[in-house]
């Protein structure tokens, strides 16, 4: 039986798709679907929400297209899946311009989190800018709190929060990246977008091996 | 028949005027050149690419890209005075900033394959004569103005040169 009545018949176990879904308690779930509605991931979380990929190019993010009546959102699932979406987005790979210089998009990846959150709550702001300028915008945002402790930042991300690491370079190109949320942490501490994309250590992402003097700031999203 | 003729004529005149206005609008002047022009890209990516910054007081700065190759290029930027006359950009380079006594080391995630580490940035004064380059292929598409110098295409990404450091 399907007590939550999530499909068009209460006798239709997991929407007649037992290969893709498991639903031992008959409760509802948070679904992540692509632009065509094809399921990418689902979470058995007792909520009834659908997030769909929208946008184009480097700016692809999940939009909340179907809300749970309770108004609750599985933010952990949203951040986890947005990180995977960023990592799989070919338009967030660095490009080499014809003059041989690279163009990288760590700032766009972080902005995608803000865009996804904006669809959940239009009061949450989306700010743009390069990596250096993003730090000041996080500092002045009421939606984020600052911590200087790497351990606190990492733990909060593992607990399912959105935590942003940022380094402002006074002499040039800075960097900004999200700590890996929840199970993504097992692949690397940082969901990196930049010269080389992928889940990796904080030291690798921010070049701390060559430059231990770099001071990072961490911003935790206030759910 | 006469009515149709005059209607067509007036439409033709209107089109010609619009065409002329558009062409006039696509001139680079000392007023509309003020801002930040980025080489090859209109995107505000993680860092600035190679840019010209033109200030309203006649100063300009040519800045090397902050991206990868920047890290092994000892010349960081140069600047001086500029003036747009007709279809040409006249410049007089007065100084350049250079990184000296740096060590070349293996790079990292941010810098790329190699980087210049340490050292110090010094300003070198240069006495130059005025030189000119033709501003070509001026266009305005999706609200973004572009021009080319020596085949290099620049996109106007900001009207405020001061925005570079923010």
Summed up, the helix count of chain A is: 5
Summed up, the domain count of chain B is: 1
Spell out the helices and strands of chain B N to C: HEEEEEEEEEEEE
Characterize the overall form of chain B: globular
Residue windows where pLDDT falls under 50 for at least 5 positions of chain B: none
- With strands numbered from the N-terminus, the spatial order across the biggest sheet of chain A is 7-12-8-9-10-11
Ends distance of chain A: 34 Å
The count of strands of chain A amounts to: 12
**H/E element string of chain A?**
EEEEHEEHHEHEEEEHE
The biggest sheet of chain B, with number of strands, parallel, antiparallel or mixed sense and barrel status, is: 10 strands, antiparallel
CATH topology of chain A, by name, is: endopeptidase fold (from Nostoc punctiforme)
Assigned CATH architecture of chain A: Alpha-Beta Complex
What structural category do the secondary elements of chain A indicate? alpha+beta
Main sheet makeup of chain A: 6 strands, antiparallel
Shape of chain A: globular
Strand content of chain A: 15-25%
Q: Could you tell me the radius of gyration of chain B in angstroms?
A: 21 Å
N- and C-termini, Cα separation of chain B: 63 Å
